[in-house]
Each structure stands twice: as C-alpha cells, then as structure tokens.
Amino acid sequence: MLYFTLSAGAIAVMVLFFVSMFYGRSATLCDAKVGEVYNFEYLQPLNGKPKRWMAKVVEPVVKLDDSAIQRLNRRDYRKNDPKFQRSHHLVTCETKNGEIRQFYCERTTNCRKPLFNNLISS
C-alpha cells in the first residue's frame, strides 16, 4: 500500500511539473528579461501558420522606433514580402535545440512563463 502511495505521489509531482512547464503564468515577451524562459506561439507570416516555441531570452529586449523599423525594411531580408511586418519589440532567444532566433513580441500569442523557470533555464 505504501509503494502505491509513493508511486502515485511521484506521478502527481511529474504531471504538475510538466503541466506547469507548458501552462505557467500568462506573460508577454515584450517584458522579457535575460535568462527567463517563455513558451509561446509565434505567428509566422511566411507560411501563415503559428508555431509553438520554448525559448530562453539571451539579450535584453530591443525597442525599435519607427525610423529603426524603416531602416530594417530597406534591407534585403524579406524586402518584397508584403505580409512581413516588423513591430516595435525584438527579442533574441535561444531555443531548446540551441538555435539563436529573434522574435517580434507583438507576433506572439498564448505566451506563458513556466512556473519552474529557474530549473528550465539552467
């Protein structure tokens, strides 16, 4: 009987850990701080489908004014793509597989900060 109780307790702890990892506190990537981990859907205009990401912020959020966005729009990257629009907050993150990516926080939805943020970001 004691073995069953311990197993059920261990399973409950594991379930709570994984649920909290994906369904933590509601958050916004625009207010992200270096070292924090976020789980979010990113609206990618290239294929029109959102993709879920879990990523750790590795640089402070860059706040872009209108003139900075205009300068970026003059570059070759997606220059002739009418669906691609830059926004005012650019966040540099490291994904689970170690890839460094930048996300415009205004294009994130269902953004969550896992409850066990410190354990994940280590």
Task: Please characterize this protein's 3D structure.
The chain is of the alpha+beta class and 122 residues long. The protein has one domain (2-121). Helix content is 28%, strand content 30%. The chain is built from 3 helices and 7 strands. Strands 1, 2, 3, 4, 5, 6 and 7 form a 7-stranded antiparallel β-sheet that branches. Strand 5 (89-95) and strand 6 form a beta hairpin. The protein is elongated and about 60 Å long.
The arrangement of helices and strands along the chain is: HEEEEHEEEH
Radius of gyration: 18 Å
**Oligomer designation:** single chain
Question: Beta fraction of the residues?
Answer: 25-35%
Mean pLDDT: 78
Helix/strand-derived class?
alpha+beta
Count of discrete domains: 1
Uncertain segments are 118-122
Number of helices: 3
Percentage of residues in helical conformation: 25-40%
The major β-sheet equals:
7 strands, antiparallel
Shape: elongated
What is the number of E strands? 7
Give the terminus-to-terminus CA distance.
37 Å
